[in-house]
Request: fold
Amino acid sequence: MVPPPGADPVAWVAAHRADLRELVALHGSVLVRGLDLDGRERAAATVAAVLGGEGMAEREGFAPRDPYGPPGVYSSSHWPADQPMCMHHELSYAGRAPRLLAFACVTPPTSGGVTALADARAVLADLPAGLVERFERDGWRLTRHYNPFVGIGWQDAFGGAGRDEVEEYCAEHGIETRWDADGGCGRSRRGPRSSPTPGRASAAGSTRSPSSTSGRWRPRCGSS
Reply:
């Protein structure tokens, strides 16, 4: 979609939110070009307009990112520019996964900078039947260890929560926790193989296995 020249991005997105979501439901994604995103605040407000007040606070993150004010709107991950990220399902391993992602570009890169998307239904259809059957039968288990040396610490992963709040969150979402003498936190969770996609006509649903390549994980800009 291309808005008219000079259109206020926040007002335009708010007025076309229903159309944008309908296109996402039909095609899986939609690209909007030509919005006047002249800075971080305008971009964050535009993403918030897409989410329509349904922003989701991030929990159990894999890489640090900065909150940008409106609920559910964050910076991209603090990630080495020379390191790619693999295809994945956003927060698929968490107790709650987002239904909608919105990405905004304020400063186009001089090279690279591609945000690649994949159709989870097509990926599921291409998986070997035996592997799909194992997911259907056994689901998956993800075990993580938060520590102050590698990756993101548990304090940041759980939004600055204290130890008691982390244990309460984990108990509510079926996550097993353990605490180490060095201050680290280990957690383990078993999840289902697939889940239905709201608003999408598909018998297959979408795969929601935790996906990684060489420890690389992909962040979101805004989600709900």
Observations:
- Residues 11 and 49 are 8 Å apart (CA to CA).
- Strands lie at 101-102, 140-146, 176-179, 185-191, 194-195, 206-207, 222-223.
